[in-house]
Amino acid sequence: MPTNRVSTRPFEGQKPGTSGLRKKVSEFQQPGYLENFVQAIFNALPPGGGRALVVGGDGRYYNREAIQTIIRMAAANGCQRMWIGRGGLLSTPAVSCLIRKFGAEGGIVLSASHNPGGPEGDFGIKFNGTNGGPATEAVTAAIYQASLQLDHYLTCDSEDVSLDRLGDSMVEDMVVSVIDPVADYAELMESLFDFPALSQLLQHKRFRICFDAMHAVTGPYAKAILEERLGAPEGTVINAEPLPDFGGGHPDPNLVHAAELVARMNGDEPFAFGAASDGDGDRNMVLGTGFYINPCDSLAVLTANLHLLPGYRDGVAGVARSMPTSRAVDRVAKAKGIPCYETPTGWKFFGNLMDDGRITLCGEESFGTGSSHVREKDGLWAVLCWLNIIASRQQPARAIVRSHWQRFGRDYFSRHDYEEVDAVAANQLMDQLRGSLTSLPGQRFGEHVVASADDFSYTDPVDGSVSEGQGLRVLFEDDARIVFRLSGTGTAGATLRVYYDRPQRDPARLELDTQRTLASLFAAADEMAGISRHTGRSTPDVIT
Ligand code: G16
Questions:
Q1: Spatial CB neighbours of 21, under 8 Å, sequence gap ≥ 6
Q2: Which residue ranges does the record assign to the Alpha-D-phosphohexomutase alpha/beta/alpha domain (predicted)?
Q3: Is the pTM of this model over 0.90?
Q4: Interval 502-530: pLDDT, tens
């Protein structure tokens, strides 16, 4: 079959953000747009690279069409072997699992994560490397450079591959295997957790749970593992069918968007535990009865208890958190005498630390938690961790968190997002604040006096690479902290994220209202950065 060389010209703006290239579906549907980015991936790989790839997506609108394009282009670019999840579905952690299991040279994930889908929604694509993790900064920079130099892409005229039938077929010289998207991932989970104990817990009459798959990719995984393998009652997983538009919802597992889960948890049925996952299955939100567990606390609690789980009996080598994530986990690491790394936002920064054996566990405030079993954050894994800890300690989630706070103290944490802000105004805010950083120490904002302020820069301890400009952080003398950064995952205007955290050690002050506890910091942030002046907004759009 002949290879077609199709002339093209670079598109502007194919620079990957925090996690791959995310744009409106309509932008991806422009002739040559997806093709250019895929060709840029192949051009950026080392010679002979990309011969064995795992490909899958979260099932959002345009997933199937994109996969057929990628199949033809991969064959024309010399790929020999490709594994695709049936129906074009693979969760992001499952892609990572399969790359590692098959020894593939990488993978292509089609997802815009928690962003809405459908013809008017978002689409995304990212490349994962041989370790199963998101491409490093050096690789994404190479992909971007390649995208700027394109004058052609390679494809072929093959028929569409049937994505719904398991089995192998040939496209040029490439063997394409359509595989069960769940089986290998489920096997990995079984090797990490105490499945008999989980079965007993989930079949207990007085321990009902609710898992909201939000009509996204985790549905089939959660049904297969929680209901079919572990015997949780049918209906435990709600919104289990992946839909191209996520049923019109916003597949972001937080208290606002996982509204059905929250309503059920607060309803008449006595649920002991609730959880939700996002579009591509890498994020998680966990809830106890009448109790929201902040992702920063979740990371700290998992770090303190991971040794209880069969796959982690050897202990935790070290932990890492993204810089804006609260410092709750730092104290657990200190108590355990293990290292704790502070990385920039983005899962790609954890990969080297895991590959080098420095960390076992990592997480972010953005509802991401994961371990070295794969190189992505993993929503369902985090839920199984919690359930296994509940089973092992024989305590409800709420009691586990409360006793954690009693032992380690609590870090009140909240993130305020100002979405679709005018990009020029958002950059002005950041530039002005950056310009004032050196003069901030010593200044008082209400009850808080600034101790230090900087623009976070990270030197990877493994390869020595330096990532600058990763967020403005302001630390106060009372140990409270504010972080300002612009999101790297939005697709319209700019999203300003302001992160607040405030440690509390007084055992009598561990159950206060978070927003009220942090209110004086909100005022300080507005005074120091002029949030309302620059954005024209008096309140954030999303509070987590
Ligand atoms: C991605 C990254 C995460 C990051 C999150 C938010 O997650 O993998 O590391 O924390 O975006 O990034 P930002 O604050 O730049 O928008 P996901 O789940 O969207 O792939």
A1: 14, 15, 37, 124, 125, 126
A2: 14-148, 184-287, 299-408
A3: yes
A4: 999 999 999 999 999 999 999 999 999 99
What 3-state class would DSSP assign to 301? helix
Distance of CA 9 to the CA centre of its chain: 32
Equal CATH topology for 3-181 and 185-408: yes
Q: Are 312 and 332 in contact (CB under 8 A)?
A: no
Q: What residue owns the CA closest to ligand 1's atom 13?
A: 487
Nearest-CA neighbor of 536 among 496, 501, 498, 500?
Answer: 496
Is residue 388 lining ligand 1, measured as CB closer than 6 Å? no
Nearest to 462 by CA among 377, 348, 365: 348
Q: How far apart are the first and last CA of the chain?
A: 53
* pLDDT at residue number 267: 86
pLDDT in tens, 41-86: 999 998 877 799 999 999 999 999 999 999 999 999 999 999 999 9
Give CA–CA dist 69/388, Å, rounded: 41
The pLDDT of residue 428 is above 70: yes
CATH class for domain 3-181?
alpha beta
Cα 313 to Cα 278, 304, 306, distances in angstroms:
29, 12, 8
CA-proximal residue: ligand 1, atom 4 (nearest): 346
Whether 349 is in the pocket of ligand 1, judged by its Cβ within 6 Å, is no
The finding on whether 344 has its CB within 6 A of some atom of ligand 1 is: no
Separation of CA 269 and ligand 1 centre (Å): 33
Residue located via tokens 């489920």:
186
Which atom of ligand 1 sits closest to the CA of residue 92? 20
Q: Which residue from 401, 343, 325 is spatially nearest to 137, judged by alpha carbons?
A: 343
Q: Can you tell me the distance from the alpha carbon of 328 to that of 159, in angstroms, rounded to the nearest whole number?
A: 53
Is any atom of ligand 1 closer than 6 Å to the C-beta of 364?
A: yes
Query: How far apart (Å, rounded) are the C-alpha atoms in residues 50 and 81?
Result: 9
CATH 3.30.10.20: does it fit domain 410-543?
A: no
Q: How far apart are CA 538 and CA 532, in angstroms?
A: 5
Q: CA-CA distance, 271 to 241, in Å (whole number)?
A: 22
pLDDT higher for 205 or 95? 95
- In degrees and rounded to multiples of 5, residue 158 shows phi and psi of -65, 160
- Residue positions counted in the chain: 544
Amino acid at 42: F
Strands 481-486, 152-156: parallel, antiparallel or unpaired by DSSP?
Answer: unpaired
Catalytic residues: 113
Q: In CATH, what number does 185-408 get?
A: 3.40.120.10
Nearest CA to ligand 1 atom 7: 19
Alpha carbon 204 to chain centroid distance? 31
